[in-house]
Prior knowledge:
- The protein is mainly α.
- The protein has helices at about 5-25, 30-50, 65-70, 75-95, 110, 115-140.
- Helix 1 (about 5-25) packs antiparallel against helix 6 (about 115-140), helix 2 packs across helix 4 and helix 2 runs parallel beside helix 6 (about 115-140).
- The protein is elongated.
Amino acid sequence: MADAQQIFEALMVEAQSDIRSAKLLFDGAEFSRSIYHSQQAVEKAMKASLVLTGIVITDDHWVSDRFMQAYPDMPNMRNLIRDSKYLERQAIKSRYPLFTSTERPIWIPSHEYTELDADDAYRKANNILKTIKQFLKEKHNISF
Length: 144
């Protein structure tokens, strides 16, 4: 198995790819997909950070609570977790139509999410990634 540093770097490479993808999709007016990639960027950056504490998560997409426990001294943690939990809730909703009730219209992500929704998600994700990278650099001398 790869060591923690290799796993950290691999996840951060993909987190950065996801945030760039979110921007490209936003610019192409693919708002639901931009939101999904914004969420993925945050999930991977948090998972990368958790690896550095010995926590390797491969089978769960809800990671913000464990991240908060692992890094309680991270600046602005309350807002960071609020925003990451919002993005976690969008992960499936932004990708799949929802048709659980015949009384309600089908939720079609590509029709429902707006430019404002995608911009909000991208800004939240970008801020979370910057905060994580800054914290790791200042507190743990880890640059990426």
